Amino acid sequence: MYGCDASVLIASDNGDAEKDAHDNISLAGDGFDTVAKAKLAVEAQCPGLVSCADILALAARDVVVLVSQPSSLSLLLIHRK
Question: How many CA atoms does the CB half-sphere of 50 hold within 13 Å?
Answer without folding.
Answer: 19
